[in-house]
# Entry
Amino acid sequence: MTTITEKITLPLEIINRVIEEPSDFEKMAVHVRNNLLQNNAIDTGLHLDAFGDDQDEMFQAIECLAYIIIHIAKINATEEEFEAIFLQTMLKPAFKKGVYKSAYARMDEIREFMQHDNNRGIKKFKDMDWRLGMVMACRNK
# Structure
């Protein structure tokens, strides 16, 4: 069972305070997901200046929303797991469709992106026989 910590849920509370319409939340969540897939800096499609003093908190909340989307894709969440994760986010129930749509609509692409990103910069042995020969030679000394 996945547990979402307060480090994620507390910043998400500002989304509940600032965004009222589920359609606005859904647009923002889809925009955040699309930016993740394009490997861009997170952009909400919203003008953060409109949030005044809450601007930094809103950006942190958006990063947490991106984490939730990635986490759902990473564990390849079932409906039951999604329900449990969404309940832990403490987002408004009206925002459930937006989270679902942003995570599941392109889940395969998100998982492929994560796989590619996780393998970047990792050197792997292509010829296992050579590696085994080196191990055996080192042990014989």
